[in-house]
């Protein structure tokens, strides 16, 4: 290239880089406005020298329900041994990878490794199972994959026999979101999604498998399925009421009791059929675990975000 031209190109490049820098800095300071740790660092001098850090809050449990769910799982699985975990909606394998890191920590790939923990991942879609399996294979030693991990293409409505003691069953309801982990150009089919009846059956089976000190974790999406969300809430509220001193869980299903306890009333979205499914599934849990089982149930949602995903956890204390 002619040297005059190359200088011109270089100077154009320089000014473009400087302009891009300025835009990035502006964006960064706009997006962090009001954040104490950032705004107090901004002085006339630093503005020139160092670009503002761009924060990624995605992993902060105070910001996203997924990060909060992961934090709660890590509490349940602290020092986990001789226990099984079920990812009932494997999807793109993000949750499965996180669970595998908790269940099989400090493993290296070079020797045969042994663990007493088990991870079971279920999904109705073949491509979800393939992606999850591949991501686990990239992470775990072969011996662990073979002996301690199962990825099954089947509905979570029922679980395979002989799970042994289960300490955590996790659900991320809804449909398979698009992801860089999926092969091919086809977007996933959003019509293949969890549904109220199989979700309720699954929660009932999961609750009966769960050991004391174990937890159900359910991410629901009221925007995409308000009835399923309401049914999950009602089922888990029923679990919470098993050990209530003041309110019989069956009262949730009778109008008179609901007048006395409006906070416990079922959502109007729940029709007669779904009501019956919730009732019978709660009866089955009670029958399987006995009347002494006790649960502590919480929900976590973003305030001010209409229809934000909601995390519901049901922790078995007795
Ligand atoms: C929101 S995605 C799960 C995301 C996943 N946990 C992750 O970390 O990537 C929901 C998944 O549930 C699956 N699914 C729908 N109905 C199901 C059922 N009855 N049993 C098991 N999986 C189901 C869908 O195929 C989809 O992959």
UniProtKB/TrEMBL annotation:
Any one Pfam family match given in the protein's UniProt record, by short name: rRNA_methylase
Superkingdom per UniProt: Eukaryota
Compositional bias ranges of the Polar residues kind: 29-53
Region (Disordered): 24-58
Organism: Fistulifera solaris
Record-linked InterPro entries: MnmM_MeTrfase, SAM-dependent_MTases_sf
Name the UniProt record assigns to this protein: Uncharacterized protein
């Amino acid at each position: 290239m002619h040297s005059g031209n190359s200088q011109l190109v270089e100077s154009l490049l320089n000014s473009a880089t400087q302009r891009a820098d300025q835009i990035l800095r502006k964006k960064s300071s706009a997006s962090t406005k009001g954040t104490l740790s950032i705004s107090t660092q901004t002085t006339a001098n630093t503005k020139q020298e160092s670009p503002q850090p761009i924060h990624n809050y995605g992993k902060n449990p105070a910001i996203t329900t997924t990060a909060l769910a992961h934090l709660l799982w890590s509490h349940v699985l602290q020092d986990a041994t001789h226990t099984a975990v079920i990812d009932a909606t494997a999807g793109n394998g993000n949750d499965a990878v996180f669970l595998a890191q908790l269940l099989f920590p400090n493993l290296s790939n070079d020797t045969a490794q042994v663990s007493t923990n088990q991870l079971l991942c279920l999904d109705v879609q073949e491509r979800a199972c393939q992606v999850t399996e591949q991501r686990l294979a990239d992470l775990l030693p072969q011996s662990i994959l073979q002996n301690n991990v199962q990825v099954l293409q089947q509905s979570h409505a029922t679980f395979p026999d002989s799970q042994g003691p289960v300490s955590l069953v996790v659900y991320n309801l809804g449909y398979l979101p698009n992801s860089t982990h999926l092969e091919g150009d086809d977007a996933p089919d959003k019509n293949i999604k969890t549904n109220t009846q199989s979700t309720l059956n699954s929660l009932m089976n999961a609750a009966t498998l769960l050991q004391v000190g174990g937890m159900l974790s359910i991410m629901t999406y009221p925007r995409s399925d308000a009835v399923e969300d309401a049914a999950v809430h009602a089922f888990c509220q029923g679990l919470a009421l098993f050990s209530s001193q003041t309110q019989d869980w069956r009262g949730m299903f009778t109008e008179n009791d609901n007048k006395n306890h409006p906070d416990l009333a079922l959502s109007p979205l729940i029709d007669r059929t779904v009501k019956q499914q919730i009732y019978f599934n709660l009866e089955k849990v009670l029958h399987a675990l006995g009347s002494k089982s006790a649960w502590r149930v919480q929900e976590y949602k973003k305030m001010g975000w209409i229809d934000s995903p909601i995390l519901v956890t049901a922790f078995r204390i007795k």
